[in-house]
Amino acid sequence: MDRFLQAAIEEAEAGAAEGGIPIGSVLVVDDRIVGRGHNRRVQRGSAVLHAEMDCLENAGRLKAADYRRATLYSTLSPCDMCSGAVLLYGIPRVVVGENRTFRGPEDYVRSRGVEVTVVDDPACRRLMADFIERRPALWNEDIGE
Q: How do residues 9-65 score in pLDDT, each as one tens digit?
């Protein structure tokens, strides 16, 4: 398995262990993780702390040139908000652990020049399936249903 996707899975597991939604993300620049995060909506009572947003926040202020060399890894397909951050910062590559559970605007992001790779990783699918089975109301809240 890709070590960066594995790091995102570890973030997702950390979120689950905290009682949150098991989605994780890492930002990689020049083959090095510069930011890590996981969905903290439950833990922080936040409306916006999806894994990707937490990851970008934890990466801190980066130069535009850094973002242009970056790859964002996420265990689940990024939503509209998180995809918007990818476009805003000019991140050229996104690696998605799985998009069966939820599929964000991948086609739109691709149409804007971002390379989107969907791995369809069994561990990512299992994390989400187990979570949704245990806490369907929380999942529906997170995806806005």
A: 999 999 999 999 999 999 999 999 999 999 999 999 999 999 999 999 999 999 999
Q: Spell out the long-range contacts of 108-115 with Cβ–Cβ below 8 A and sequence spacing 24 or more.
A: 108/83, 109/78, 109/83, 112/87, 114/86, 114/87
Tokens 């980066």 correspond to what residue? 62
Structure tokens at 138: 């929380």
Give the residue numbers marked as catalytic.
52
The pTM score is 0.96
Q: How far is CA 139 from each of CA 49, 127, 129, rounded to the nearest angstrom? A: 14, 12, 10
Tokens at 126, concatenated: 């299992």
**Where does residue 132 rank: exposed (0-12), middle (13-18), buried (19+ CB within 10 A)?**
middle
